[in-house]
């Protein structure tokens, strides 16, 4: 059988002292951390669109990355080669999951019917490759943003014929995901947003978005798909203002439109930072509402204002993310999907492996350190003590809703000026460094 990465062997764990760029230094899939294997905690996934289909194109130039699986003139041969290359990549890297959009895995075709026929052929091959390798589909989604028909959105398009097209794609992708055993289905907002309010009826567009999502839930139920629905917030890009701005906005939307029972959130690091939040802020906001479902693991660049989708190598960020994930008891059916791409000049095929190895090692390290911090109770103790005044007396009465403003006034008149307590941020930051450096 054709191989696309002949020079790469299965990536092995060699430990922190290894100098082999094609080996894991920290990700040891079967090692136990806090009662589970690393592989069970981290549930790594490869993003098909970046890793298999990414061309390196940017607004200033077309594709720079030439891929052997994309060489055929015939689009379906190229699609099949790409899928086989993908499974070779997943297997050699040792990830358990992958994610795709409909138009990543099969060509668009001239009509919807043709696109669906292409998808059916590719889905059959994907099913075979999944069965052969044991690799599973973390989530799939419909690309409702690349084609020119979606220039003004999909579910929020002012033209119902375009919303209908989008609905047809989502229907097909739910059926495809169901056939392939997808564990989740993602809605990232694509072009659901606006460029100017001068031509936009925001209320109507939001109502349409909610109606569309309810239709997806209904169809999933009708075909017996029980995977978790996820919404992936992003504040801007491609539209000036995306409706799914951030965790808090999406949670409010889900509540308003009676969708809370059906959806959780897929939080992407670079989207959180575009919304002027830290990654851990948006993870925490989702988590405290019981809605953190999955993660798109990547990073941005603070000096650039767009979604650079770089591979995550920031140990602090991975540590803070893993703290949130461990504290909520894991991601359930979600995972850590590397929605990340190599840079335009990362021409070598091995760069794809090196990039993922770096991301996996970063999160593995974050996991190990987070588990130790939790085991030692470092932050839990600090937080518990910091709020201890609410555990009894006036604080407990306050939390129970038994006090009025008059009670607060009486307490203050009787007790006088409170003595403020240090937040100890600097101490905690030093402790975090000590845990990180200690390994
Ligand atoms: C784009 C999004 C996209 C989704 C899937 O910014 O991150 O890649 O994850 O449609
Ligand atoms: Ni994403
Ligand atoms: Ni993104």
Structure description:
The chain is built from 16 helices and 14 strands. With about 450 residues, the protein is of the alpha/beta class. Strand 3 and strand 4 form a beta hairpin. Helix 6 runs parallel beside helix 7 (about 200-225). The model has no long low-confidence stretch (mean pLDDT about 100). The structure holds D-xylose and nickel (II) ion (NI) (2 copies). D-xylose binds near residues 141 and 234.
**Strand ordering within the main sheet:** 5-6-7-8-10-12-13-14
CATH-assigned homologous superfamily of the largest domain: Divalent-metal-dependent TIM barrel enzymes
The radius of gyration is 24 Å
Order of helices and strands: EEEEHEHHEHHEHEEHEEHEHHEHEHHHHH
Supply the number of helical segments.
16
In whole angstroms, how far apart are the ends? Answer: 42 Å
> What percentage of residues falls in helices of 4 or more residues?
40-55%
CATH topology call of the largest domain:
TIM Barrel
CATH class of the largest domain, please? Alpha Beta
Shape: globular
Detail the poorly predicted runs: none
| Residue share in β-strands | 5-15%
Assembly state here? Answer: single chain
What small molecules accompany the polymer chains? D-xylose, nickel (II) ion
Number of domains: 2
Largest beta-sheet details: 8 strands, parallel, barrel
Using the 3D structure, state the CATH architecture of the largest domain: Alpha-Beta Barrel
Determine the structural class based on helices, strands and strand pairing.
alpha/beta
The whole-number mean of residue pLDDT values reads 98
How many beta-strand segments?
14
């Amino acid at each position: 059988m054709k191989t696309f990465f002949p020079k790469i062997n299965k990536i092995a764990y060699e430990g922190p002292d290894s100098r082999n760029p094609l080996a894991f230094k920290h990700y040891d899939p079967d090692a136990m951390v806090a009662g589970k294997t690393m592989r069970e905690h981290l549930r790594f996934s490869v993003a098909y669109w970046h890793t298999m289909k990414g061309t390196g194109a940017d607004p200033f130039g077309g594709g720079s990355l030439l891929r052997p699986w994309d060489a055929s003139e015939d689009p379906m041969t190229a699609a099949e080669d790409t899928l086989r290359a993908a499974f070779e990549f997943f297997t050699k890297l040792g990830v358990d999951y992958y994610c795709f959009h409909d138009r990543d895995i099969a060509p668009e075709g001239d009509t919807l019917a043709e696109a669906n026929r292409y998808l059916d052929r590719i889905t059959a091959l994907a099913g075979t490759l999944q069965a052969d390798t044991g690799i599973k589909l973390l989530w799939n989604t419909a690309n409702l943003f690349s084609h020119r028909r979606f220039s003004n959105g999909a579910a929020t398009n002012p033209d119902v014929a375009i919303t209908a097209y989008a609905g047809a794609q989502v229907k097909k992708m739910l059926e495809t995901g169901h056939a392939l055993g997808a564990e989740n289905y993602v809605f990232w907002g694509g072009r659901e947003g606006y460029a100017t309010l001068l031509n936009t009826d925001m209320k109507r567009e939001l109502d349409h978005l909610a109606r569309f999502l309810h239709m997806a839930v209904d169809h999933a139920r009708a075909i017996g798909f029980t995977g978790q629905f996820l919404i992936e917030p992003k504040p801007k890009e491609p539209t000036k203002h995306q409706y799914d701005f951030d965790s808090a906005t999406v949670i409010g939307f889900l509540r308003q439109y009676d969708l809370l029972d059906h959806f959780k959130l897929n939080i992407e690091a670079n989207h959180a930072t575009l919304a002027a939040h830290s990654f851990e802020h948006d993870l925490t906001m989702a988590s405290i509402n019981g809605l953190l479902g999955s993660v798109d693991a990547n990073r941005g660049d603070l000096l650039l204002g767009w979604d650079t989708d770089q591979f995550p190598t920031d140990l602090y960020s991975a540590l803070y993310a893993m703290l949130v994930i461990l504290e909520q008891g894991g991601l359930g059916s979600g995972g850590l999907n590397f929605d990340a791409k190599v840079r335009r000049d990362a021409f070598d095929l091995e760069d794809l492996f090196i990039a993922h190895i770096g991301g996996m090692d970063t999160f593995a390290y974050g996991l190990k350190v987070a588990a130790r911090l939790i085991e030692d109770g470092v932050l839990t103790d600090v937080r518990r003590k910091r709020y201890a005044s609410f555990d009894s007396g006036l604080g407990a009465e306050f939390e129970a809703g038994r006090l009025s403003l008059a009670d607060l006034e009486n307490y203050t008149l009787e007790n006088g000026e409170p003595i403020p307590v240090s937040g100890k941020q600097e101490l905690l930051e030093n402790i975090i460094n000590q845990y990180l450096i200690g390994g």
